[in-house]
Write a structure and sequence with these properties.
The structure is a homodimer. With about 325 residues, chain A is an alpha/beta fold. Chain A has two domains: about 240 residues, 3-Layer(aba) Sandwich (Rossmann fold); about 70 residues, no CATH class. Chain A is about 40% helix and about 15% strand. Chain A has 14 helices and seven strands. Chain A has a seven-stranded mixed sheet with strand order 4-3-2-1-5-6-7, with helices on both faces. In chain A, helix 4 packs across helix 6. The two termini of chain A are about 25 Å apart. The N terminus of chain A is likely disordered. At the A-B interface, helix 9, strand 3, helix 11 and helix 12 of A face helix 9, strand 3, helix 11 and helix 12 of B.
Chain lengths: ~325, ~325
């Protein structure tokens, strides 16, 4: 159905994002409107008040108010599989005509034949092979175009929504609230950096230079007049676990004062943030809501939350109980 | 001599920097005050006016006004040797008591005995060995403390000035002018990133997260309650030549619209910047002033400027002739 709104929208993704953000804008007078009153919301507002009150011993000057967020499972959903992997699986099918050899080669054969058992047997290495094959060997600009095209048309198998609508409304509000209080908001995620940059600015308000993630090696190609950056099928940095504080130090060069994650892969980032001098905030999103989202933690293969949950409880970090603390999960739910 | 000013200064480096910046502040009404009127200054102001004029076809929104600067030879001097190498040589002497084996091992022996011939024979590999030995195997915090201590007391062999005063006054003004016009200013340099961050914010007004450089591999050490980042003696990224556009793409994720360098190591960064769509600025600082600074280009071992100079002339990039275009070189010269 072509509506007037659609006709007026030159850039479909931008419009969708605007629609997404409208609920936030409408509630601009009330920060964190989708958070229920309770210990999680209170610990956030208490922290922000402490570090932004001039004269307070906890005051932090704006340039040092750095907040880092994991992406998968923290800012958007990650079930039944990390969305970037779903993108890579779709890309195998789309790119298959250019790769006739895939019909007879695992793990690509498994994807093309929807053979879940063979795909599961290929394991993490198989998935990485699929990501590398579909996301490298092309220029950075070509990859970004592929990612944007997929994000614009792909739909989640359970909700039927575009993936960029499966972001957490309370976390969008938290990002806004922090920025309104002089924070610089970063993503620090195991996802590949160029994939996240394809939507982070429009969906989260986080510009490319504040997105940190896993990276492939690249090669500058100095073609006469039209140089390009070629993506190579070799991981340069795995931004997971200890890789997170390492990339924070390499790229930001300053320790964050707030960190939010949802899995054991975020533990070291939380430890690094929490151990800084002065007041710090470490938070976890705990997926406890099988009705509105998903419920999983210690036993999950995606987004395992085990050690980090224990450490959060020991150290008194903030654990957000999705079912208890969030009025709404997604922006598309009725407020 | 202890002066009242010195007594009042809690942080010596900060005070020195304030003194450094006073000339700039005094001339706040007149941007680029240390630039002579001429083609270089005119090309800068013409470019900035074009990309900041709303409604102009060359207009660039503030978030995309990214400017990247090489450091050695572009923002400060680099003779007789890159200042970070002079730091590393001094560190060999300072750290020697903890390394008795250095007395009998090259290239350390050469440094300890001031044996220039043996040091020259060790070549670039020898220098890299010295940098790695003196700058790694310690935490990121310990390294920053070492770098700051050296910067506070070391003096340049020719000028007798602290290295942080050997920055180019016209370039400080250019950084200010760009920021006043909504640009985000970055360093993209072959220098090691943590060394530059030890002074970049105070001296250039460029915060750590806008400093990109060569990096060592690191390892997160999760010591109970007090984790740290250990610097390892292995280069992770060599931010020179093609490494510059590669790191810009990996870390910034957006193509700059202005780039300034001074040597062949900056050529690919200039190519990458200049080839973007829309109006772009590519500039070179040409060291032509043997009296106030140094004069060198095609034959120099430090900061070789050969291919990039040819390409700048072919493509009409802006070449700053230091002797002709700059009223003052250093802030400590009389205005």
């Amino acid at each position: 159905m072509i509506t007037l709104k659609a006709i007026l929208c030159v850039n479909w993704l931008r419009c969708m994002t605007l629609a997404l953000l409208l609920p936030v804008l409408a509630q601009a007078g009330e920060p964190l409107a989708s958070w229920n009153d309770g210990p999680a919301k209170a610990s956030i507002t208490r922290f922000v008040q402490a570090v932004t009150t001039e004269g307070s011993q906890d005051f932090v000057r704006p340039g040092e108010r750095l907040a880092v967020f994991d992406n998968d499972g923290t800012l958007w959903s990650e079930q039944p599989l990390y969305f970037q992997l779903l993108f890579a699986l779709d890309e195998v099918k789309r790119q298959a005509p250019q790769h006739p050899e895939w019909k007879a080669t695992q793990p690509f054969k498994a994807v093309l034949e929807n053979d879940r058992q063979a795909l599961a047997a290929a394991g993490v290495d198989g998935l990485l092979k699929i990501v590398a094959a579909t996301s490298t060997g092309i220029t950075s600009e070509a990859f970004t175009a592929n990612a944007k095209a997929w994000l614009a048309q792909a739909r989640h198998p359970k909700t039927g929504k575009p993936y960029t609508e499966m972001v957490f409304q309370p976390m969008l509000e938290l990002l806004d609230y922090l920025r309104a209080n002089g924070f610089k908001t970063y993503i620090v995620s195991g996802g590949e950096v160029a994939f996240m940059r394809a939507f982070a600015e429009q969906v989260y308000g986080i510009p490319p230079e504040q997105v940190i993630g896993s990276t492939f090696q690249t090669r500058f190609q100095p073609d006469e007049g039209q140089p390009s950056i070629l993506r190579l099928p070799k991981l340069a940095h795995n931004d997971d676990g200890p890789g997170k504080p390492e990339s924070i130090e390499a790229i930001i060069g300053r320790r964050p004062i707030l960190a939010f994650g949802n899995s054991d892969g975020d533990l070291q980032m939380l430890q690094w943030t929490a151990a800084g001098s002065g007041k710090r905030f470490a938070g976890l999103v705990h997926h406890t809501d099988a009705r509105r989202e998903w419920a999983y933690d210690r036993q999950s293969r995606v987004g395992t939350l085990n050690k980090a949950l224990d450490e959060a409880n020991e150290r008194g970090w903030t654990v957000v109980d999705m079912a208890r603390d969030w009025k709404r999960v997604y922006p598309f739910e009725a407020p």
